[in-house]
Design brief:
The complex is a heterodimer of chains A (114) and B (111).
Chain A (H helix, E strand, L loop, with lengths): L3 E3 L3 E4 L5 E7 L5 E8 L3 E8 L6 E2 L6 E7 L2 E6 L8 E8 L9 E2 L3 E5 L1
Parallel strand pairs in A: 2-11
Antiparallel strand pairs in A: 1-3, 3-8, 4-5, 4-9, 5-6, 7-8, 9-10, 9-11
Chain B lengths: L4 E3 L2 E5 L4 E6 L4 E9 L5 E8 L4 E4 L2 E6 L4 E6 L8 E9 L5 E3 L3 E6 L1
Parallel strand pairs in B: 2-11
Antiparallel strand pairs in B: 1-3, 3-8, 4-5, 4-9, 6-7, 7-8, 9-10, 9-11
Classes of the chains: A mainly beta (114), B mainly beta (111).
């Protein structure tokens, strides 16, 4: 079974802090994604990566950056956390082309910025 | 931009009944997928239907796709309390292959 592991289930950070959310997958998937999920808004794509050291902006990249130094690891970085970034963050991975395969999700990180 | 829109937003049924959930989308797609999310957890893939398919089955799940109406339905037959979850449709737009999710349907199955 594919396993996508997010390093923290819950995080509480202060406004202005730099925050790292880590995601690791164990199935050698090329594609990795970061979504945020908010009530009434569903899942929104922040960033995605189709290969090591490669990244593309999703629908809401402002205030975020990402890093993919190794194939199995995709990090989401909040350079200076703000209260409007309080949300559930979901990492996902998938094989080479998303229209050929489903996404596998981690269990999410619930981030609270105070 | 929201590609898929599920309908209804919430559905409450009795155990044993069938649950039908609908998804509409706006642009041409390569495929449409349905996912399930239990409270506080990540999404789990249920079923994928390609744009050239009209119907697909997996256990108690039946998915249909009507590309002329740009809509899909997910039918869960003989529902169980354990089916209580949120259900999302996701579309892979033909133009860019990004997977875009709808806002989800909350299904409650009463024992």
């Amino acid at each position: 079974d594919v396993k996508v592991t997010q390093s923290s289930r819950y995080l509480v950070k202060r406004t202005g802090e730099k925050v790292f959310l880590e995601c690791v997958q164990d199935m050698d998937h090329e594609n990795m994604f970061w979504y945020r999920q908010d009530p009434g808004l569903g899942l929104r794509l922040i960033y995605f990566s189709y290969d090591v050291k490669m990244k593309e902006k999703g629908d809401i990249p402002e205030g975020y950056s990402v890093s993919r130094e190794k194939k199995e690891r995709f990090s989401l970085i909040l350079e200076s956390a703000s209260t409007n970034q309080t949300s559930m963050y979901l990492c996902a991975s998938g094989q080479a082309s998303s229209y050929n395969s489903p996404l596998h999700f981690g269990n999410g990180t619930r981030l609270t910025v105070t | 931009s929201q590609q898929g829109e599920e309908d209804p937003q919430a559905l409450s049924i009795q155990e044993g009944e069938n649950a039908t959930m609908n998804c509409s989308y706006k642009t041409s797609i390569n495929n449409l997928q349905w996912y399930r999310q239990n409270s506080g957890r990540g999404l789990v893939h249920l079923i994928l239907i390609r744009s050239n398919e009209r119907e697909k089955h997996s256990g108690r799940l039946r998915v249909t796709l009507d590309t002329s109406k740009k809509s899909s339905s997910l039918l869960i037959t003989a529902s169980r309390a354990a089916d209580t979850a949120s259900y999302f449709c996701a579309t892979d737009a033909a133009a860019n292959s990004k997977l875009t999710f709808g806002k989800g349907i909350t299904l409650s199955v009463r024992p």
